[in-house]
Amino acid sequence: MNEKEPTERFKRGLAKLKEIDGEAGEKVIESLKDIAPDLGRYVIEYPFGDVYSREGLDLKSREIATVSALTAMGNATPQLKVHIHGALNVGCSREEIVEIMIQMSVYAGFPSALNGIFAAKEVFQERDEKGLSDS
Amino acid sequence: MNEKEPTERFKRGLAKLKEIDGEAGEKVIESLKDIAPDLGRYVIEYPFGDVYSREGLDLKSREIATVSALTAMGNATPQLKVHIHGALNVGCSREEIVEIMIQMSVYAGFPSALNGIFAAKEVFQERDEKGLSDS
Amino acid sequence: MNEKEPTERFKRGLAKLKEIDGEAGEKVIESLKDIAPDLGRYVIEYPFGDVYSREGLDLKSREIATVSALTAMGNATPQLKVHIHGALNVGCSREEIVEIMIQMSVYAGFPSALNGIFAAKEVFQERDEKGLSDS
Amino acid sequence: MNEKEPTERFKRGLAKLKEIDGEAGEKVIESLKDIAPDLGRYVIEYPFGDVYSREGLDLKSREIATVSALTAMGNATPQLKVHIHGALNVGCSREEIVEIMIQMSVYAGFPSALNGIFAAKEVFQERDEKGLSDS
Amino acid sequence: MNEKEPTERFKRGLAKLKEIDGEAGEKVIESLKDIAPDLGRYVIEYPFGDVYSREGLDLKSREIATVSALTAMGNATPQLKVHIHGALNVGCSREEIVEIMIQMSVYAGFPSALNGIFAAKEVFQERDEKGLSDS
Amino acid sequence: MNEKEPTERFKRGLAKLKEIDGEAGEKVIESLKDIAPDLGRYVIEYPFGDVYSREGLDLKSREIATVSALTAMGNATPQLKVHIHGALNVGCSREEIVEIMIQMSVYAGFPSALNGIFAAKEVFQERDEKGLSDS
Q: Start and end of every Carboxymuconolactone decarboxylase-like domain (chains A, B, C, D, E, F) (predicted)?
């Protein structure tokens, strides 16, 4: 599968990744370069180039969906933190992030909600320290 | 724990349950009456009386969060279908439901997304047959 | 691995399986005979011959643990129903089964609790129809 | 939802939280104060004020259920450790905790059982260092 | 995202889907046509056009990986059955499928293994009835 | 259950454990000695003495199954790392490990795949530092 991939999806995906996840997203791709560069390319192409670039559901709602799912599954804390950043970057307020976690206490149990809150707390502190403004 | 519960949470919750889940929600409570009536009361009080009644995140976003989480976990199809109805009742379009499922293919895998779509298909057909209008 | 297995674990396990799960347990083993008889043997030897035969935690508590775990995971309804029978066979009351499900609403969310209750409802009805007495 | 909540559930829940989880439980509530105080309040009210305060299943059995579920799900180690403490506080022996983990090897696989044991090991060491006596 | 997608990935994916999943795979795509045709296209493009078309791991090993994962997760029975067919189509024997399920008893617990076996049993019967030969 | 266990299964299992997991496997058993020695014995007897010792599926395929399942479940990182070592010890190449993770992006979502890759990266580095050759 070494043919040059169509650069359209990749370019669109890379722009979308930067828009949503900013520096955190690029670090993930960077960390894949020496071990699984094709997975890095796929992350850009399919989730960002295809899915996040779709119409039909606004970016803020897509991040609400993602933060909810990752909080409920409770087995992917690094990605949850990247997407709490992402949600704040595309229009969620900190209050809305907290409300998503409270909502998850109903559907995935209180431990998932608590661990979601603790992830959010770390993200909020990191943004304060770096002077990142929420959208 | 037989003291009369404060009726405020219960009343608020029952109204919220009807607003969101309509007939499907009331059927769930009804089905608990002979085996676990207190669980039925808790469903009304905590998820609906407390959580869905909160400010800080609009009802449509709460249902996007719920549908996403249940699709990602993939182990609660009856509740997923109730909340696809719920999402359509409080402002989601069918297109938005489909987009949530596509979004989940990224975070919980394609099988979860496919099973989410098949649940949505059943809900859409049921609404068509009953002449239920989406919001 | 065709050497004759030590019959001690197998015999002890089969007796334990009958004590706990009764007819339902034997049906599971029966259903494996034509496709995976060794898995049937392992089910008897390891879970029942080794684990359930241990001292240090009484049988009723072991079934509380099992029913809780299967309700929380929410992806093994047939086994959950076998073990609701099992719990009732070794000393749990129907009320205690219901309380376990309510307890799970806290740790695995309300959908898991509801689906646990619906499984219990089917088991209770089956026992009533068959005239099975709880322990 | 700013009306003053009925203090009955909250008071009962706080007493129950202290009885079961002791210091560890209070720390969790404390850690929520600056980010999600309402979630802290809900933790006290629903799980402890409503559920753990119910009759029909003794506290020790409730903690067996909780430790089993959290071990099986395997995605909430901090809460698992709090509830291993809780189980020991309300009447479980260390031997019973170990047996619960062995029981989970059957229903959730050996990795869940092993990670449960490693969590228990840390809790036992912490209790030894602090001179906490088991119940 | 209505630009014409590069047909290379799609064509390659469709051929791969037919090679692996045969009729069952095409039925899945067909069932998406009226509700989520783009998800059908993505299924062909990303899993089959990109991933299954990669070198570095043979098709039989890819299906062993897939059947194992779906058995362990235990929340996607229809897809598990499609991929048991797939595994048999690309070189797995029925005995190997059974061994995968036994292997899963160790890592995901006996209920997941049992439900995997029951899914395999249905697939084997369906193949016998249709006169499908295993590879 | 203090009768002397048949040493056949134990001996066979210990040899298999050393063959597959090497030093990492023995460390796990060692770490159980003071808290749950019987669980250590069971790990040797059932997974290794019974399951891995079976014919019908070669060791390399068994490790592909295990690494896939643990990556998909995403809640047992220490065991995933032990089995990435195991897979490399019994015939998988590093490239094949990476391909398994890419395969999992389809069935368990991109976060599971990414966390699988990061676990693999740590294992590969550890092997380089220790001068461990892959098989």
A: 37-122
Which residues have a Cβ under 8 Å from the Cβ of D27 and sit 6 or more positions away?
none
User: Distance between CA D29 and CA F31 in Å, rounded?
Assistant: 33
SS3 D114: helix
Cβ–Cβ gap D1/B42 under 8 Å: no
Mean pLDDT computed over D12-21 = 95
What value does the mean pLDDT take over residues A93-99? 98
Q: What is the ipTM of this complex?
A: 0.94
Q: Per the structure block, which two tokens stand in for B25?
A: 């929600």
CB of B108 within 8 Å of any CB in chain F? yes
Which domains are present in chain F? 1-54 (no CATH), 57-135 (1.20.1290.10)
Rounded to whole angstroms, the Cα distance separating D8 from F87 reads: 57
Whether residue B89 lies within 8 A of chain F, CB to CB, comes out as no
- Residue corresponding to tokens 């249709």: E130
> What is the rounded distance in angstroms from the CA atom of residue C62 to the CA atom of residue C72?
15
Indicate yes or no: CB of D107 within 8 angstroms of CB of E110. yes
**How far is it, in rounded angstroms, from Cα E106 to Cα F44?**
11
Sheet strands (E) in chain C: none
Of A3 and A102, the one with more pLDDT = A102
Helices and strands of chain D, counted as H and E runs: 6, 0
Cα angle: A104, vertex A105, A108; to 5 degrees? 70
- C75 close contact with D: CB closer than 8 A: no
Q: Hey, is B109 helix, strand or coil?
A: coil
d(CA A112, CA B72): 14
CB of D50 within 8 Å of any CB in chain B?
yes
Identify all chain B residues contacting A51, using CB atoms and an 8 Å cutoff: 102-103, 105-106
How many Cα atoms are found within 13 Å in the side-chain-facing hemisphere of E73? Answer: 32
Q: What is the pTM of this model?
A: 0.96
Please list every residue in chain B whose beta carbon sits closer than 8 Å to the beta carbon of residue A57. Answer: 95-96, 99-100, 103
Distance from CA of C76 to the nearest CA of A (A): 17
Residue F104 CB burial class (10 angstroms; 0-12, 13-18, ≥19): buried
Q: How confident is the model at residue B2 (pLDDT cuts 50, 70, 90)?
A: very low
Neighbour-count burial of E123, counting CB atoms closer than 10 A to its CB (0-12 exposed, 13-18 middle, 19+ buried)? buried
Torsion angles phi and psi, residue E34, rounded to 5:
-85, -15
User: Is B72 within 8 Å of A69 (Cβ atoms)?
Assistant: yes
Helix (H) or strand (E) holding C23: helix C7-32
pLDDT in tens, A6-62: 579 999 999 999 999 988 888 999 999 999 999 999 999 999 999 999 999 999 999
Angle at D69 between CA F79 and CA E116, to 5 degrees: 65
Give yes or no for F10 touching C (CB within 8 A): no
